[in-house]
Structures are given as structure tokens and as C-alpha cells.
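Query structure, 284 C-alpha cells:
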């Protein structure tokens, strides 16, 4: 019996040898990360693959976030609450606070601290890139992961422009903020917002003018020393998270600190060497 020929099964289907060959070829087409792990190629699937999953339930709600960077003092309470609520392992984060030191116009040093998490985009690229159909829109338009379907392909992580997804090292599945849906279902707010001592985090229904987040949006719009901004507007993902920023220190000053496609929140963000603005000399 020769070993260099494909041997079809009795029913004419492709043999295991042929399957292994095709699988090896597919893996060879992917690039390798610095750690030797296979890095999936980002592919946006045809609309028929994700159209229905992109539609939010007809519940009349539109959940969103507002982060007041002027009030956050970097206590990490939101991160700790999130880790405890969702059993997030050490070294991984569903949300993370980004630090940035800068010099003010009066030559005094200042620091802005920004709690970051999934933006729950209306036009979510992670959902479009998911090959197995695990990502979908849940209550209020929240971007959710179906763990009965997720295969850990990591295409969603590669497609996310905000570094808000990580792959669980044990379950090998995509993990991200899900707006604490299990808490919303019983009338509670996300764990992070109820823990924040400085009232820097607001979550709620943007369609409800009486919600705390809607009232805060209106209040900020009337203030002259603050602006409402969204992260990486050029990505055109229509994120549901807005940031209150000092008009004298725009988002562009610290936006580079936020992870990009293919990245996740990491321990390096807490290094003091990452807090200040980097110069060309620093990068040499």
C-alpha cells in the first residue's frame, strides 16, 4: 500500500490524511507571534455571516458608558470589582485604568487616569471577524460572547481596535466586558460602577432621558470646560463609550496608551515608564 496517495473513505469522503494536509496548509498561512503562538489572520466575513448577530434585541434599550476622566483618581476599584465578579485570572484584564503624566500650560505636572473596557460598538469589528458566530448583540445592544459556541480562534482580538479582548489561557475562549448582564437581569448595575468611589463611571440606557448617564451627558454638554469624546473615531465603529475630557487636554494626548488591534490590556501599563509621554530619544 502506497503512503503518498490520498485514501478516500468508503463513502467517498476525504480521508483523515487529506484533512491533516489541509489543516497544516491553513496553519502555515498564519503568522507567528513573538511567543511562537499562531496569530490568526484578520478577516471580515461577508455580511450574511454576521447580519443577524449584529442586530440587538428589540427591547427598547440602548446601553452605553460615560467615563469622567477628570474624576478618576486611579484607585483601581473598578478593576478589582470586575476581577472578583468575573473570576478574571492574574495577568489578564476585562478592564484596566490607563495612566498618563503630562505637563500643563502652567508648567506644573498633572496626571490623567482613564478606566478602559470594551466599547460595545454599534458596528463591532470583533463580531464581523468571528468565524464561529459566537459574538452577538445582547440586551441593550451589548456585545456578548456565546461560550457554547466560542472556539478561541482569537480573530475577534485581532480585529478589536481598542485591545478590549483577551483569550483565556485555560478555557481558550474570548473574554471581554459583557456589561455584567447577569447583574442587569436582576436589577443591579455593573460591578465596576457601584464600586467606583469617585463617581467617574456611568452606565445606563441612553434611550432613557431620566437615566443617570443621560442626565450626565446633558450636564457635560452645558459645561464650557469639558468635552465629550469617543476613542479612535476614525475607526468608524460607533462605540457606546464616551469620555469626559478637559478641553485643555484632549484625548489625543493619551490615546496612544490604549492597546490596538491584536493587543490586550497588560501588566506593562502599570510601569511608571509608561505613564509619561515618550520622546524619540526614549524609543531608541
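Result returned for the query:
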Amino acid at each position: 500500500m502506497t503512503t503518498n496517495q490520498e485514501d478516500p473513505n468508503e463513502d467517498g469522503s476525504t480521508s483523515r490524511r487529506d484533512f491533516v494536509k489541509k489543516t497544516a496548509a491553513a496553519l502555515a498561512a498564519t503568522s507567528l507571534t513573538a511567543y511562537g503562538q499562531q496569530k490568526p489572520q484578520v478577516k471580515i466575513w461577508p455580511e450574511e455571516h454576521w447580519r443577524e448577530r449584529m442586530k440587538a434585541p428589540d427591547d427598547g434599550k440602548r446601553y452605553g458608558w460615560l467615563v469622567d476622566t477628570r474624576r478618576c483618581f486611579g484607585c483601581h476599584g473598578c478593576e478589582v470589582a470586575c476581577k472578583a465578579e468575573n473570576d478574571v485570572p492574574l495577568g489578564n484584564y476585562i478592564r484596566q485604568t490607563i495612566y498618563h503624566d503630562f505637563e500643563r500650560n502652567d508648567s506644573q505636572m498633572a496626571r490623567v487616569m482613564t478606566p478602559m473596557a470594551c466599547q460595545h460598538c454599534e458596528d463591532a469589528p470583533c463580531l464581523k471577524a468571528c468565524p464561529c458566530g459566537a459574538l452577538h448583540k445582547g440586551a441593550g445592544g451589548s456585545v456578548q460572547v456565546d461560550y457554547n459556541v466560542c472556539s478561541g480562534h482569537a480573530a475577534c482580538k485581532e480585529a478589536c481596535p481598542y485591545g478590549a479582548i483577551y483569550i483565556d489561557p485555560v478555557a481558550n475562549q474570548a473574554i471581554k466586558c459583557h456589561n455584567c448582564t447577569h447583574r442587569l437581569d436582576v436589577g443591579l448595575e455593573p460591578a465596576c460602577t457601584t464600586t467606583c468611589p469617585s463617581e467617574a463611571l456611568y452606565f445606563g440606557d441612553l434611550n432613557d432621558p431620566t437615566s443617570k448617564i443621560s442626565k450626565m451627558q446633558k450636564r457635560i454638554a452645558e459645561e464650557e470646560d469639558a468635552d465629550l469624546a469617543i476613542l479612535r473615531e476614525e475607526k468608524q465603529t460607533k462605540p457606546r463609550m464616551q469620555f469626559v475630557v478637559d478641553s485643555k487636554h484632549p484625548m489625543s494626548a493619551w490615546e496612544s496608551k490604549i492597546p490596538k488591534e491584536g493587543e490586550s490590556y497588560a501588566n506593562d501599563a502599570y510601569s511608571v515608564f509608561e505613564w509619561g509621554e515618550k520622546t524619540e530619544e526614549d524609543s531608541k
